[in-house]
Amino acid sequence: MDEAAVRDLLRQVEDPDLGDDIVSLNLVNSVSVEGDTAEISLALGAPYSPHETEIANRVREVLGDHGIEAELSAHVDDDVSADEQVLPNVENIIAVASGKGGVGKSTVAVNVAAGLSQLGARVGLFDADVYGPNVPRMVDADEVPRATEDEIMIPPEQFGVKLMSMAFLVGEDDPVIWRGPMVHKVLTQLWEDVEWGHLDYMVVDLPPGTGDAQLTLLQSVPVTGAVIVTTPQEVAIDDARKGLRMFGKHDTNVLGIAENMATFVCPDCGSEHDIFGRDGGAAFAADNDMPFLGSIPLDPSVRTGGDEGRPIVLDDDNETGDAFRVLTESVANNVGVIRRRSQQ
Q1: What are the helix (H) ranges across the chain?
Q2: Which terminus of the chain has a lower count of CB atoms within 10 Å, N or C?
Q3: pLDDT digit string (tens) for 69-115?
Q4: Which CATH fold would you assign to the domain 82-338?
């Protein structure tokens, strides 16, 4: 069997999101056939996302039915050369943002990062919330970064996630009182002077609002896409709308809307209570033609996990953990959609 015959077989493999076969969508970079083995490079850019895993498995299945063993690799071309990138070894940068504080943005960022690592991905979590850095507490990270002789910081790891936070660099109770230029300088150093290594995903926990830290990120690093966190409450939705417009003005893809603190189920009587309203995040996503990533219930176990430093997404027997796992998979899948669309 030659290359043309293999490519013809690959037309049987459909992309679950883009609605056509992977050959027509230009997602087959190259094919090399030797004997009963085909080496195939696919334009897949979201490692361990369920949909891209499905595509790869389908390729193996289709070729296997014809006695061909598939050896797969993945590569997506970027518009920016590696020499010009700020973080050339980071494949995807995911910004987690909210229009206002108090909606659980850091909780979502921590659980998405831990969830991606649980899927098998190489993950970094950058706590860019300079005024309220609390990610280290939420993952029970006591170890601080080490420095090399070249003054490059080695980030500590927790739950398989590499961590960097302002909390490592200031006193535990010291307030951070900085103007814009200082915020820009410190954030730039924190992602340029850190040995992140090769990462499939870097999750960035942004401060609430649309201020200096957000502008620094969007102007300095190639953000793959943003997750906007809101509660169902109308006041939170109003502020989330501002965050959505901020990313639009900087031509940054939005991966979708995550609704936090949704329905509360009473542990005693089992009845549901919509403390912050119902379906506000889903309606906001629909009104703005954005993907809805999922809804996270208002669950005391989320607070407990954050205070005790173990993300609830790691609890296999918890329904709220299931909700975070669904959210994580939706984020990864939408990263893949953005990367694959870039090949069209």
Answers
A1: 3-10, 50-64, 105-119, 135-138, 180-192, 212-220, 234-249, 280-287, 300-308, 319-341
A2: C
A3: 999 999 997 765 445 577 889 999 999 988 777 788 999 999 999 99
A4: Rossmann fold (3.40.50)
